[in-house]
Amino acid sequence: MSEKANTGRTTGNNLDPWYHHYAQRTAGLSASEVRALFAVASRPEVVSLAGGMPFVSALPQDLVTDSLNRVMRDLGPTALQYGSGQGVPALREQILEVMALEGIQGSADDVIVTTGSQHALELVTKLFIDPGDVVLAEGPSYVTAMVVFNSFQAEVDHVPMDEWGLIPEALREHIASLKAAGKTIKFLYTIPNFHNPAGVTLSWERRLEILEIAKQNDILVLEDNPYGLLYFDGPPPQALRSVESDGVVYLGTFSKTLAPGFRVGWALAPHAIREKLILANEAAILCPSSFSQLVISEYLKNADWKGQINTFRGVYRERKETMLSALSEHLPELSWTNPTGGFYVWLTLPAHLDSKAMLPRAVTELVAYTPGTAFYADGGGRQNIRLSFCYPTPESIRVGVRRLATVINGELDLLETFAGTGSLDAVRTPRNSFPPSDMH
Ligand SMILES: Cc1ncc(COP(=O)(O)O)c(C=O)c1O
């Protein structure tokens, strides 16, 4: 291919010969910081506190193997065939049982099985977003949801949170000012339980208030709940969808409570929306994997899946406690959130430290994390770090936090040297302050 594309525009130095052919929305498909990190963090000598991989080794292999064998023995031709674009009916019924644990009552008719909840996120965005439409999302928010929103040319508007989750008053203010600016708000994307990355849970009172605000303003709520069943002590408040069925699209997944390798998630949609979601699902993938769905269905039928979720809870609870105690030991002057479930701790650095700029140094010290900037569409998050405790063993977590402390203290020493003040008081943050000063 020549340096000049068919459009007649020169491609300059760009090495991609198709540079000028891409649709405009492709510009939103930039590689996330998390993605770039995986390559580095997967080196065995690096302790990765970066990724959100569930600890699937806690799942006894024979549980899965038994289900696999039964599917192949009893349902082989069906499992290997195309299936319904909406998903296997028996599994959709079982999904209702899973959601009932979060207070949700629905109909299997309104469940659409997708290729992970990530795919449901993409389908809902595709159905609703025109370029320039606004998606309201917590600040910070789940990085790969924002990649989807950007790829459909949505504008992401971050609404601040505190330790009780999204702040309703701030939501009201954001809606009012966006409307005054003539913007079209299409939906509110929220992760109410054990938030990724902030680790906080939306209180019950706020759930009710946020639903009311959404209703008053005719805004759809997209409730993303991958972690709700992975609580440490008591369950989180019931789902937003348990209160409101017409204005909420609920997303669930087997990725964290079973295994992400199956790539099975789902949407529970208001009846009016579900037909379009099924059509969008069919257009994208024809049907979700019959094989994966049937294996999960067998597993739910025959295995003690609730007991297995309890096992996962115990594993993650221990890791969270290890991480928090290592942080208290090695970085006692910093602040962080204390999640009551899920995978993540959100750490606030001393003022003037930059989580993104510090990352190469951390990798040199053989520890990886995700800089807070990955979780904002607007450049926020420099003073924050997401630490994941789901995958590394407790021992690795201790090593990782110790290395992180070396990096942070090294940066502070540098800062002190250059500031020449001899005092660090000005750059240290008060313990357990939330929200961090740059959460906007
Ligand atoms: C908040 C959130 N939503 C959605 C997903 C996607 O999960 P999956 O596609 O595996 O169901 C993740 C995965 O980490 C997540 O953290």
TrEMBL record:
Q: Which cofactors must be present for this protein to function?
A: pyridoxal 5'-phosphate
Annotated Gene3D superfamilies: Aspartate Aminotransferase, domain 1 (3.90.1150.10), Type I PLP-dependent aspartate aminotransferase-like (Major domain) (3.40.640.10)
Which CDD domains does UniProt cross-reference here?
A: AAT_like (cd00609)
Q: Which UniProt keywords apply?
A: Aminotransferase, DNA-binding, Pyridoxal phosphate, Transferase
UniProt similarity note: Belongs to the class-I pyridoxal-phosphate-dependent aminotransferase family.
| Subunit | Homodimer.
Aminotransferase class I/classII large domain residues are 74-404
Give one GO molecular function term. Answer: transaminase activity
Please state what the protein is called.
Answer: DNA-binding transcriptional MocR family regulator
Q: Which species does this protein come from?
A: Compostimonas suwonensis
Instruction: State one Pfam family annotation.
Output: Aminotran_1_2
Q: Which GO terms describe its biological process?
A: alpha-amino acid metabolic process
